[in-house]
Amino acid sequence: MNQKIYNVLFLCTGNSARSILAEAILNKVGDGRFRAFSAGSHPKGTVHPFSLRLLESLGYDTAFARSKAWDEFAVPGAPEMDFVFTVCDDAAGESCPVWPGQPMTAHWGVPDPAAAEGTDAERHLAFAEAYRMLNNRISVFASLPMQTIDKLGLKRRLDEIGQDLPKAG
Fold it and tell me: 69 φ, ψ to 5°?
């Protein structure tokens, strides 16, 4: 039996940190059932070096990582998305392109680690915290019984996943 592979787009404004982390996480924990992408409304053009360092330290291949505009995924021939998740509050409030196929959407806001100030150690900690939050949410998402849950129930679960999760310590 061929199981459907779901295309998922993670959106943020700059596409340099949170959405890149989310793309990497889902492509790993999705176990071949999901194909993740990321993009930004106003991409920075480069991936934040702390994002790359964190992913590499956790054993991810970062060759996929590039900062790109979301309209790359709204043109003919682009992969049709099943899900589109915003991971920053700014992108959630912007007018998004019309996505072919009318994907299910949700907002999973995470504080921007690229905006963190302080020592390099404190800034690295902000990236680790963003990774932790995204990993928790994406792990719950990836474990949902996609084939057996109705659309309304699925939408409710996606919105619940985006609610604040308990913070460590």
Answer: -80, 150
Question: Which among 74, 96, 128, 146 is annotated as catalytic?
Answer: 96
Looking at residue 164, its pLDDT comes to 63
Q: Which residues contact 12 (CB under 8 A, 6 or more apart)?
A: 18, 19, 38, 40, 41, 86, 87, 88, 90, 91
Active site residue 23: no
- With respect to residue 120, please indicate whether it lies within any of the assigned structural domains: yes
Q: Is 26 a catalytic residue?
A: no
Instruction: Write out the residue range of the structural domain in which residue 142 sits.
Output: 6-159
* CATH code for position 63: 3.40.50.2300
Which tens digits make up the pLDDT trace of 128-164? 999 999 999 999 999 999 888 888 889 899 999 988 6
Query: Active-site residue 59, yes or no?
Result: no
Annotated catalytic residue within 8, 11, 12, 81: 12
Instruction: Look at the chain and report how many structural domains it folds into.
Output: 1
What does the pLDDT look like over 112-136, one tens digit per residue? 999 999 999 999 999 999 999 999 9
